[in-house]
Amino acid sequence: KKYFLMQLYSSSVLTKMNRTQKNKATAHHLGLLKARLAKLRRELITPKGGSGGGTGEGFDVAKTGDARVGFVGFPSVGKSTLLSNLAGVYSEVAAYEFTTLTTVPGVIRYKGAKIQLLDLPGIIEGAKDGKGRGRQVIAVARTCNLILIVLDVLKPLVHKKLIEHELEGFGIRLNKQPPNIGFKKKDKGGINFTATCAQSELDAETVKTILAEYKIHNADITLRSDATADDLIDVVEGNRVYIPCIYVLNKIDQISIEELDIIYKVPHCVPISAHHRWNFDDLLEKMWDYLRLVRIYTKPKGQLPDYTSPVVLPDGRTAVEDFCLKIHKNLIKEFKYALVWGSSVKHNPQKVGKDHILEDEDVIQLVKK
């Protein structure tokens, strides 16, 4: 009953927002409504306590490999066919909707990295409000390093907008950077608002209103870019994930060459045919670019480097210390220095410490104490 009432209230807030004219005078009111909506959505996603039915069969998939890629899309757009042809995994395929009812994992090896592929069940409109298996599907999508939105090339835009809307409602931001906003709570001193550049939407009054909705009355806010009310809410909520995304347009065997040329110009898009296995190499290459993984080859003393099985590190965590921790957590205690060959050093080999940042395809030799 409570769940139904919350949904009813959130839809009334949405109606209010749609009816409000957008201008400087109403920015303040709109900011308040947006904050209210964000709070309601968070409560809908994470129900408080209680031993309500488990997580649902097949949804908590163990993370294996160096990266995780999730296939998201409406039922019957060819996600399962794509996965089985890419990874050789059998995910039940049929010509009717909702064939896949649980998460089906598969693993591919590409450029020495093990990439886990997840075929998530079809998302339906209203998934973010708990319809279908949507809530569990999107919870798994939040843990992915890359999301592939699989679309039917004959009706791509309708599906794209709906899926993006569902994922946005769950705090997943696609192909975006976190907002450049400094936010720090304090015990006293009120709201201290600073903007280092001109703002088109937010002013001190609107910021105070949004923070008051979250019962925050003492904080330092620094806007380092032209931010919107949604950006500020994202920072205050603090549970947003920023994930790169590729739009995979399937079933290109049903369109003309001229249409294909137009599709190729769309950013973040890869046209394929899962059934005929067309353009898979292009898709894999784009996946590799978006995952931004770094391969490090090991070199035992007095031997040639081992180019067959690299140690793969995620982007942003590529220091020598991260490399040691990836192999074994005790290795860093015995670490003295490392010898590195490759593009991250000026001389080959170069003696480096644990803070040295490694680059793709560097060769490393560890020297223990």
UniProtKB/TrEMBL annotation:
GO terms for biological process: positive regulation of microtubule polymerization. Transmembrane segments: none annotated. One of its GO terms (cellular component) is cytoplasm. It holds the Pfam family TGS. Its main location: cytoplasm. Residues 292-368 form the TGS domain. PROSITE patterns: G_OBG, GTP1_OBG, TGS. Keywords: Cytoplasm, GTP-binding, Hydrolase, Magnesium, Metal-binding, Nucleotide-binding, Nucleus. It comes from the Eukaryota. This is Developmentally-regulated GTP-binding protein 1. It comes from Sphaeramia orbicularis. GO terms for molecular function: GTP binding; GTPase activity; metal ion binding; microtubule binding. InterPro entries: Beta-grasp_dom_sf (IPR012675), DRG (IPR045001), G_OBG (IPR031167), GTP-bd (IPR006073), GTP-binding_2 (IPR031662), GTP1-OBG_CS (IPR006074), P-loop_NTPase (IPR027417), Small_GTP-bd (IPR005225). Residues 67-292 form the OBG-type G domain. It is found in: Cytoplasm; Nucleus.
